[in-house]
Amino acid sequence: MLACAIEGRARTIVTFNLRDFRAADLEKWQVRAVHPQDYLLELYAIDVPGVMRSLTAAAQGRAVPLTVPEFLRRLGRSLPKFSEKLLSEAG
Q1: Cα dist. 26→7, 41, 47, 88 in Å?
Q2: N or C: which end of the chain has fewer CB within 10 A?
Q3: Per-residue pLDDT at 90 exceeds 90
Q4: Tally of domains within the chain
Q5: Residue-wise pLDDT tens digits, 31-86
Q6: Residues 53 and 22 in one domain
Q7: Do 41 and 81 lie in a common domain?
Q8: What pLDDT, on a 0 to 100 scale, did the predictor assign at position 2?
Q9: Residues 18, 1, 45, CA angle at the centre, nearest 5°?
Q10: Quick one: 58 and 21 in the same domain?
Q11: 54 and 18 in one domain?
Q12: What is the pLDDT, as a whole number, of residue 91?
């Protein structure tokens, strides 16, 4: 995956498998590896409306549409910090 990031000139690899990437290799190529939850929290801090639009589209685009809170609760299984933050801010 690091080779793909280098070839594609990506600066960030989003992965659940952070331990697969040695810090020295990432630093050498000026690439960072970040957990999906942390990346989503970064995006949310930068563009709340954009993240909410994407979540709404993902929730409604399912075979069985969900509300955004329902979708966030499901995401909470693998992205608990992200899910909890958005659910708490929603009210």
Answers
A1: 14, 21, 26, 34
A2: C
A3: no
A4: 2
A5: 999 999 999 999 999 999 999 999 999 999 999 999 999 999 999 999 999 999 99
A6: no
A7: yes
A8: 86
A9: 55
A10: no
A11: no
A12: 65
d(CA 42, CA 35): 11
Give the model's pLDDT for residue 53: 97
Specify whether 62 is located in the same domain as 81.
Answer: yes
Same-domain pairing of 79 and 55:
yes
d(CA 55, CA 69): 10
Give one word for 89, left, alpha or beta, with left for phi > 0 and alpha for psi -120 to 50.
Answer: alpha
Longest dimension (CA), the chain: 45
Question: Following DSSP, what letter does each residue of 47-63 receive, concatenated?
Answer: -HHHHHHHHHHHHHTSS
Same domain, 84 and 54: yes
> Which domain does 63 fall in, by range?
37-90
